[in-house]
């Protein structure tokens, strides 16, 4: 695991942008794994700026997002489909047919999960997967206890995850309790992984990750077994939680 220490959220976003811009330039048909949440917003803003300045194009880019809430239609303002559209896709020249986000409102969710796995394979696998980390160590929506062998599936969200994500909804009751998430094995099959970690709310998780053990009780720990992981972490997320 290659760890890059940065000062703050802005610097984390800048470094991540440099890496993704480089991959978009160097790969003929880049397949990007993307994430939602507060962590990648600064990165997406900067990618839009790079596009507007003519430095990059998304014409040949294919994307696969990590997850989507079960039960939310694509046009629901809280769906991750809308999040990605607002934060990135509608501002750049990406082709609609190359955007992939699980459909959490599919009538047959099992079939949707299988089709998602198939689509990733068809695209030749994910070149670089962007990840955030949950305070509980989740990656995607794979909560503690998820088998490392998991593929894209319907998952139950932990209470702490529902509480953490309630900030995006009018009330906590509106937060879906399930999601479709790319599996841990699916994530691990990516050729490269870029994990972004910012803020003191992630300090405990970061300390556990750096401790190095690998356990299904802490999903992100599996990243210690991947050959090509870069972690960009800011000072607040590196603060020793015991010192607080
Ligand atoms: P966040 O979410 O970027 O909003 O902190 C990360 C995650 O839960 O994986």
Can I get a quick summary?
This protein is an alpha/beta fold and 244 residues long.
Q: Could you list some keywords that capture this structure?
A:
244 residues; alpha/beta; Rossmann fold; 7-stranded parallel β-sheet; 32% helix; binds 2-phosphoglycolic acid
Report what the structure shows:
- The protein is of the alpha/beta class and 244 residues long.
- The chain has one domain (2-237): Rossmann fold (3-Layer(aba) Sandwich).
- It is 32% helix and 17% strand.
- The protein has eight helices and ten strands.
- The protein has helices at residues 9-26, 41-52, 80-87, 109-122, 159-165, 184-188, 203-211, 235-238; strands at 2-6, 31-34, 62-65, 67-69, 99-100, 128-131, 153-156, 178-181, 192-197, 229-234.
- The strands form two sheets. A seven-stranded parallel β-sheet has the order 1-10-9-6-2-3-5, with helices on both faces. Strands 4-8-7 form a three-stranded antiparallel β-sheet.
- The radius of gyration is 17 Å and the shape is globular.
- The relative contact order is 0.18.
- The model has no long low-confidence stretch (mean pLDDT 97).
Please, how many domains? Answer: 1
Helix percent reads 25-40%
Q: What letter string, H or E per element, gives the SSE order?
A: EHEHEEHEHEEHEHEHEH
Mean pLDDT: 97
Distance between the termini: 26 Å
Major sheet: 7 strands, parallel
What general form does the structure show?
A: globular
Structural class: alpha/beta
SS strand fraction: 15-25%
Q: Give me the side-by-side strand order of the main sheet.
A: 1-10-9-6-2-3-5
**The level-1 CATH class:** Alpha Beta
CATH T-level fold name:
Rossmann fold
Q: What is the number of helices?
A: 8
Regions with little confidence, pLDDT below 50 for 5+ residues: none
Q: How large is the radius of gyration?
A: 17 Å
CATH architecture: 3-Layer(aba) Sandwich
Number of strands: 10
Give the bound compounds. 2-phosphoglycolic acid
């Amino acid at each position: 695991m290659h760890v890059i220490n940065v000062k703050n959220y802005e610097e984390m976003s800048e470094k991540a942008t440099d890496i993704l811009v480089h991959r978009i330039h160097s790969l003929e048909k880049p397949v990007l794994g993307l994430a939602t949440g507060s962590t990648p917003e600064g990165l997406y803003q900067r990618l839009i700026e790079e596009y507007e300045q003519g430095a990059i194009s998304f014409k040949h880019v294919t994307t696969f997002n990590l997850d989507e809430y079960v039960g939310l239609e694509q046009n629901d303002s809280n769906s991750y489909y809308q999040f990605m559209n607002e934060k990135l896709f509608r501002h750049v020249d990406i082709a609609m047919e190359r955007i992939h986000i699980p459909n959490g409102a599919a009538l047959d969710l099992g079939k949707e999960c299988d089709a998602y796995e198939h689509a990733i394979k068809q695209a030749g696998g994910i070149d670089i997967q962007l990840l955030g980390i949950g305070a509980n160590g989740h990656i995607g929506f794979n909560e503690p206890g998820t088998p490392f062998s998991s593929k894209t599936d319907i998952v139950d969200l932990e209470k702490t995850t529902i509480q953490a994500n309630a900030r995006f909804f009018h009330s906590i009751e509106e937060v879906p309790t399930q999601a479709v998430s790319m599996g841990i094995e699916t994530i691990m099959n990516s050729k490269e992984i870029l994990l972004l970690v910012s803020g003191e709310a992630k300090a405990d998780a970061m300390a556990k990750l750096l401790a190095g053990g690998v356990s299904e009780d802490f999903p992100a720990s599996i990243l210690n077994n991947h050959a090509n992981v870069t972690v960009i972490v800011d000072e607040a997320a590196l603060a020793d939680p015991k010192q607080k």
